């Protein structure tokens, strides 16, 4: 038998999908850990996500990553959800078995691991400012709380969205609140940009006082050049990091969910950085 015929099938499903780096990342993980798996790109028509997933299951698919714009549909499609997917309100990792379709979300864990392990910045007892109140922001809140941060403040252009999001996590072990940008008057240990402002080369209106010499300013976006948010933070004396490590770590966490094996992310990170 060829490897192809015994390899378990996985895919990343989105629209568009050609740009996705997940197939290369998972191929490197599989090679490194000796797992017999195939990982492909699947384009789903905008109105046929569920159909595409069921088609893939019928072809023997074991699991899938889900990307833009289907994370909410994947959440609705899943017959069981992990607590972190439930808290995120979105699913980026599906597992298919005889029990049905299980939805998980590895984005937040990817962020936490990148900050604590790769950047070497502890989160326990640290103050965190989260910029943005969309899906990307919501997805990281529970893993941050579970990392035992001291407290989380959410700030967003549309303040009511930040208030609603903070409200959803108001019964957590960690204080979660929202604030208007102009109310922020103290430095934070970690500032996470979960807005899509960098895409418009825009900057959330942050007072200078939020940056201290120990602050890590983390942008979930990444690219060949530092984002405008990172440039701004460097100008105010902060340490910075982009979201490439989060991308690799969320993939590694999905790989772990499916295969029970943790790949070494460092060489994959170096390789992908070189491709940007
Ligand atoms: P995602 O799923 O990527 O989080 P989203 O739900 O559309 O996408 O959320 C985008 C986030 O980026 C929101 O917090 C948005 O702020 P609003 O809630 O006020 O819309 C924020 N955002 C987008 N463009 C921005 C900009 N130019 N300046 C500041 N915030 C911006």
Description of the molecule:
39% of the residues lie in helices and 20% in strands. It is an alpha/beta fold and 276 residues long. The protein has 2 domains: 3-105 and 246-275, Leucine Dehydrogenase, chain A, domain 1 (Rossmann fold, 3-Layer(aba) Sandwich); 108-242, Rossmann fold (3-Layer(aba) Sandwich). The chain has a 6-stranded mixed β-sheet with strand order 2-1-3-5-6-4, sandwiched between helices. It has a 6-stranded parallel β-sheet with strand order 9-8-7-10-11-12, sandwiched between helices. It binds 2'-monophosphoadenosine-5'-diphosphate (ATR). 2'-monophosphoadenosine-5'-diphosphate is lined by residues 132-137, 156-158, 161, 195-197, 200, 202, 204. 2'-monophosphoadenosine-5'-diphosphate binds next to helix 7.
The total of helices stands at: 11
Bound molecules: 2'-monophosphoadenosine-5'-diphosphate
**Domain module tally:** 2
| Biggest sheet record | 6 strands, mixed
- The span between the termini is 37 Å
How helix-rich are the residues, as a percent range? Answer: 25-40%
Task: Please give the oligomerization state of what you see.
Answer: single chain
Main sheet: strand order = 2-1-3-5-6-4
């Amino acid at each position: 038998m060829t490897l192809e015929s015994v390899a378990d099938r996985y895919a990343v499903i989105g629209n568009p999908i050609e740009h996705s780096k997940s197939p290369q990342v998972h191929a490197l993980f599989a090679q490194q850990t000796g797992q017999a798996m195939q990982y492909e790109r699947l384009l789903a028509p905008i109105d046929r996500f569920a159909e595409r997933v069921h088609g893939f299951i019928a072809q023997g698919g074991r699991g899938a990553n889900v990307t833009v714009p289907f994370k909410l549909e994947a959440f609705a499609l899943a017959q069981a959800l992990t607590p972190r997917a439930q808290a995120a309100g979105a699913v980026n990792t599906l597992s298919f078995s005889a029990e049905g379709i299980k939805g998980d979300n590895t984005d937040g864990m990817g962020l936490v691991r990148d900050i604590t392990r790769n950047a070497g910045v502890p989160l326990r007892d640290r103050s965190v400012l989260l910029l943005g109140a969309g899906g990307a922001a919501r997805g990281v809140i529970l893993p941050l709380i579970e990392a035992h941060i001291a407290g989380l403040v959410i700030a967003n252009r549309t303040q009511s969205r930040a208030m609603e999001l903070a409200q959803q996590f108001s019964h957590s072990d960690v204080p979660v609140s929202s604030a208007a940008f102009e109310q922020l008057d103290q430095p934070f240990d970690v500032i996470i940009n979960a807005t899509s402002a960098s895409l418009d080369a825009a900057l959330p209106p942050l007072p200078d006082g939020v940056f201290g010499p120990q602050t890590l300013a983390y942008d979930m976006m990444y690219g060949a050049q530092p984002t405008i948010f990172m440039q701004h933070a460097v100008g105010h004396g902060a340490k910075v990091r982009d979201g490439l490590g989060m991308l690799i770590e969320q993939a590694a966490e999905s790989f772990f969910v499916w295969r029970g094996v943790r790949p070494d992310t460092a060489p994959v990170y170096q390789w992908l950085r070189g491709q940007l």
